[in-house]
Amino acid sequence: MANALDLQEQEQIDELKAFWKQYGNLITWAITLVLLAFAGWNAWGWYQRDQAAKAASMFEELDKAAVAGDADKAGRVFTDLKTRFPGTTFAEQGALLAAKLQYDKGQLDNAKATLGWLADNAGEDEYRTIARLRLAAVLMDGKQYDEALKQLAGATAPSFAALVADRRGDLLLAQGKKDEAKTAYQAAYKAFDVKLDYRTLIQAKLTALGAAPATEVAK
């Protein structure tokens, strides 16, 4: 009986050897790839966290420069931030912060460049639209109306449609195109929620153009 068991064990061992000889390398490679993928995923997660931490630190430095009103330093930090971490939310928020300070300090060319970078490189449509709205305002200050309107044409985030229409109306009115401005304001007025106070401003603009909208009661 013992010999029979020994023989059966030997047959199983021989079968295992044959199986391993045929498929061993394949199994080893498969396991290796799984382990490498897992290690790579962990490494990528660590890299992402490390990048986010560094970007956050730079944004904090930028914020401090903005609080201090140091537009030159804010511009330098933002340049470094967008170069090293262009795909982060910190770079996008940093652009808005730096551009506002540059505008407030009269550095209009720098503000336009900063907003232009955000408009072209932001990962989300909302950030691109905000950048184009603000850039259009800066261009309007410089009476670059046609260029400002081009920027608004690329401001496509649905949640900002009312603001875009309002800004378009301002630009058209500045060009003396009252009928087109009226159309833009009417679109803005319809797009804004009835409960928003900002809608009253649009109403005033339309009234000034002789196109006062019918008063609506907020529900």
Detailed description of the structure:
By secondary structure, this protein is mainly α. Among the domains are: 49-131; 157-219, no CATH class. Helices cover 80% and strands 0% of the residues. The protein contains nine helices and no strands. It starts with a helix and ends in an 11-residue tail after the last helix. Residues 40-44 have low confidence and may be disordered.
String of helices and strands: HHHHHHHHH
Task: Report the span from N to C terminus.
Answer: 92 Å
Q: Tell me roughly what share of residues is in helical segments.
A: over 70%
| Count of runs of 4 or more consecutive helical residues | 9
What do the pLDDT scores average to?
A: 82
Q: In one word, what is the shape?
A: extended
Largest sheet: none
Report the portion of residues in β strands: under 5%
The Cα radius of gyration reads 31 Å
Structural class given helices, strands, pairing?
Answer: mainly alpha
Contiguous low-pLDDT stretches (5 residues minimum) are 40-44
Number of strands: 0
